[in-house]
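Appendix B. One record, verbatim.
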Amino acid sequence: MPMRTDTRDEARAIEAEQVKAYFNDAGILNVAGAAVFSLMVLVIHNDAPWWSWSPALAFLYLVSLYRANMIRRYRKSPQSRSSKYWIHGQALTGGLAGLCWGVVNTVALFHLPFPLQLFVTAVSSVVAAAATLESFLLVLPPRLFTFASITPLAVGLLFIGDFLFTMLALMLFLFLPVTVVLGNRKNGIFIEAQRLRFQNETLVKELSRQHELLEGASSSKSRFLAAASHDLRQPLAALMIFLELLETERQMSQKGKSILEHAQKATSSLRDLLDALLDISKLDAQAIKPDIRVLTLKSIFNELDNEFSPIAEHKGIRLRFSATSALVFSDFTLLNQILRNLISNALRYTPSGRVLVGCRHRHGSCVSRCMTPVSASLKTRWDGCLTSFTRWIIRSASGNADSAWVCPSWIVPRVCWGMR
């Protein structure tokens, strides 16, 4: 599998993130390094000649001050210089600081007693190991410090000639390539993490752009349908009028009447679908502005009772509205539309029996309900109408199957949400 190559901009962005992460801790590590070096000198200064540690200590302080000034300038204006400048600056000062450690430890090693020799070796090894942890962020500065501080010490241990110090020197030499390998791996993990981060950010931006385009297209569609709703309804209204006129014709066979009846049902279903689609488009386009006021359910129920009772009697269904004195805070037109959708669906798809319309108080709210005696399987399919378009096949008492799309109830949750 071919390796993926970063684009130039992505590589620069990753490098900038490496520098930023490195400089977050660089100030603390700079002060800590100078402090540990000072404490080590304090321990060995009585046993080592002054010229073996005083020049290196003074030079380390100068390097630390320069590094501190560079850290301050970076935090003040990181964009004033390129990432390469900050990396090379930290690498150079890190190498110089490591050289101070290596020179002092190597020169003092020949003048110190055995316990202090082990002390110096242990402190230098721990500091070098701590510096390698920074390789997770940047490889070059901690690597130069480690090589500059450990290499002179390992060479000095070899020159002492003692078996113990020779083994320590070999261990330190073995430590150097290990730090290189582990540093590269850790830094590779950080770079890969940053690469994935930038890819995710790019993907999120692209998804946001596509989402905005889709929202714009959907909004344009909704505005078009809302504006053209009257023109779209006119041909269907004319078709229904023609079918009603055809029904008055006396010279029509029984088969023709059956065909006409099916045509009227199909046209009625088409009208319901179109009305629901256009109403939803108006809601999406925010062409319908709710006028919220206090309403009496009793007057609304009386109006609906007068409207739907003849339809229920024609189908042989008992339609009853529960008596109520409840007041609701809602939009009159939208609330009527919701109840009409529910009641018309209940009457249409209830083959026989009764339909009860009422309201209940629940958790401080008034919930209108339209109940019909249906089987469990039919109830499951009825509940589905509130969330999606559903195609039902209803068999009449004569055994004929009528296929219909049930969608008016789907608009009910949309209208309710629009009034929130």
